[in-house]
Amino acid sequence: MTSRPHDLKHIPQHIAIIMDGNGRWAKKRGLPRIAGHKKGAESLREVVKACNELGVKYLTVYAFSTENWQRPEDEVGFLMRLFMEAINNEVQKLHKNKVRIRFLGRLEKFSPELREKMKWAMELTKENLAGNLNVMVNYGGRAELVDAFNAIRAAGMDKIDEGTVNRYLYTAGIPDPDLLIRTANEMRVSNFLLWQIAYSELYVTDVFWPDFGKQELLKAVEEYGKRERRYGKTSEQLKSKS
Hints:
Helix 2 (33-54) packs parallel to helix 3 (73-96), helix 3 (73-96) runs parallel beside helix 4 and helix 5 crosses helix 6. This protein has a single domain, classed as Decaprenyl diphosphate synthase-like (Undecaprenyl pyrophosphate synthetase, 3-Layer(aba) Sandwich). It is of the alpha/beta class. Strands 3-4-2-1-5-6 form a 6-stranded parallel beta sheet, with helices on both faces. The chain has helices at 22-28, 33-54, 73-96, 112-125, 141-154, 162-168, 214-226, 235-241, and strands at 14-18, 58-65, 99-104, 131-139, 179-182, 201-204. The protein has 8 helices and 6 strands; from the N terminus they run βααβαβαβααββαα.
């Protein structure tokens, strides 16, 4: 692992990213939407590598939402093939770099072949400790909470606190994101990690995801380092404890 840039004093433990703007990136260049998705996959590869170099322990990306099934059939079909291709081409590299990959969401809706590939990737990398890549697929924050509440109910629990909910989320055992990045200048969270981002720092950039690489990530991390995380407390309360 390479050393951190000297000007980045505070590195977030967990970065979450809403990867937006693939379609607009392609349209701007007179290309089909699928070209944007393909270029976006290259950006993800670069960002995963950059996170590893920086020492970011967890990277969580919004790859396919529960609402994305409503997109044109040919686009959805391409995305499914892209997922399969990415697993075939990238997982061994992640494994070599000791990165653990998780696919989180309602996985049962995917084809048996794709589910099997996801299962294989997760099993292969489950002991890796250098980094964690969480790929949220057929994911929605509301769906995650519904599934958690139903699982808690099925377990027969009559007293529920925040710790209980955390244990039944898809992200159980994973710390909440310190930094949430959204590309393409959209000012919304789009049903992503609704529970987990309660106190995350937000960073929105007008850069489309296919143009988001290491340098853009460094800008976000540098901005994060300037923030004062309060968790509902005042600056005076934080200073009194320092």
